[in-house]
Amino acid sequence: MLHAVWIGLVVLIVCSNYHIISGTTDYIYHSIDSVPHNRVGLVLGTSRYLRSGGSNPYFRFRINAAAQLYHAGKIKYLIVSGDNSLHSYNEPQLMKEALKERGVPGNRIYADYAGFRTLDSVVRSKEVFGQKKLTIITQEFHGRRAVFIGRHKGIEAVAFAAGSVPAEFGLKVLVREVFAKVKAVLDVYVFHTQPRFLGEAVVIPD
In the structure, how many helices (H) and strands (E) does the chain have? Predict the structure, then answer.
């Protein structure tokens, strides 16, 4: 019996990851020239600093990619979505500040303070910020999961792959992503998970 359970778990992990990776290949872009124009880009949140106090390359690469897309005219507005569950921890504010440092005007940046997880950020981009087409900005492995969620929630989502972090630096993140893809499949097909919070609509102008 236990042997069968382990086999079932392995099958679930393999199939979930294959389903997301194979199903999102056409929606992942690596060059600014090839990525389609979308009015709004969604930058998925992460901490600006590591626990050691150093700069977090995941954050830095995402912000750089978002600024490059904006300055290239590939997007007109940005939603920065992340965790703001503690007064001392505010991902969206730090993301907004970093984008402004890179020349993105503050009035082109909208902060989503309830992006506690990827599903929340993606679904809220539609339900709160009114977006049915979206360029998601994050690392490729994360972008695949976000696009998978978005497309199953009625969003014409593509992802622009921010710079990759060396495997020796981000190995824990990559391992965690394997299981995060399983949870994404269960959230979409089994649990029909909704964001923790929705709230009043935010209008992003044309």
Answer: 6, 6
Q: Which residue has the tokens 């290949």?
A: 25
Locate all alpha helices (DSSP H) within 139-192, ordered by sequence.
140-152, 167-186
Which of 3.40.50, 1.10.530, 3.90.1720, 2.60.40 is the CATH number of 2-191? 3.40.50
Report DSSP state, residue 160. E
Cβ(114)–Cβ(77) under 8 Å? no
d(CA 66, CA 178): 25
Per-residue pLDDT of the chain (206 residues; tens, 9 = 90+): 777 889 999 999 999 999 999 999 999 999 999 999 999 999 999 999 988 888 999 999 999 999 999 999 999 999 999 998 776 689 999 999 999 999 999 999 999 999 999 999 999 999 999 999 999 999 999 999 999 999 999 999 999 999 998 876 778 899 999 999 999 999 999 999 999 999 999 999 98
200 φ/ψ angles, rounded to the nearest 5 degrees: -70, 150
Cα pseudo-dihedral 28, 32, 36, 42, rounded to 10: 70
* Token pair belonging to 140: 């490729």
Per domain, the residue ranges of the chain are 2-191
Q: 89 pairs with which residues across the strands?
A: 86
Q: Give the separation between CA 40 and CA 145, rounded to whole angstroms.
A: 19
